[in-house]
């Protein structure tokens, strides 16, 4: 009887290499978070430093969006805690990730995505958007995102 592995190369567990790397990054983030308290100023500085380090690693187009978005969110909602989440820039409220930026290059997609998680209070009837494609940020986009952030905080 043959014990030959019939799994597709590179997808041994059903996850792409990029997804496996994101999960490893998240495990490292969780270990680091366990050692710090969100309310601590040093933890906030470390969270922002981690976020900015990830932004610095991005391609030029992703980095431009991430830098604009970071400045916008920091201005609009200084109470949000900057951090990384699965290796992506993210912003938390009460320990839960409220919103995040998925850079296009991270998962080889056509555009970056601004996403909102369950804690975001974007509810509007029985259906509402929770992610938005970004190819660049115009002044009009920034106003829309600022309004979304304010609404998401509740």
UniProtKB/TrEMBL annotation:
Signal peptide: none annotated. InterPro entries: YdhG-like. Residues 63-153 form the YdhG-like domain. Pfam families: DUF1801. It comes from the Bacteria. Residues 1-47 are annotated as: Disordered. Residues 17-47 have a biased composition (Basic and acidic residues). This is YdhG-like domain-containing protein. It comes from Mycetocola zhadangensis.
């Amino acid at each position: 009887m043959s014990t030959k592995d019939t799994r597709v190369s590179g997808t041994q567990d059903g996850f792409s290499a990029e997804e496996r790397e994101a999960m490893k990054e998240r495990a490292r983030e969780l270990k680091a978070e366990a050692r710090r308290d969100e309310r601590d100023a040093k933890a906030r500085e470390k969270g922002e430093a981690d976020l900015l380090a990830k932004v610095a690693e991005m391609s030029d187009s992703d980095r431009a969006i991430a830098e604009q978005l970071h400045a916008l969110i920091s201005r609009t909602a200084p109470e949000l805690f900057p951090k990384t989440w699965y290796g992506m820039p993210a912003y938390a409220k009460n320990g839960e990730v409220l919103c995040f930026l998925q850079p296009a290059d991270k998962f080889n997609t056509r555009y970056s995505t601004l996403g909102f998680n369950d804690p975001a209070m974007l509810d509007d009837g029985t259906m509402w958007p929770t992610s938005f494609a970004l190819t660049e940020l115009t002044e009009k986009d920034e106003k829309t995102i600022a309004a979304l952030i304010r609404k998401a905080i509740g």
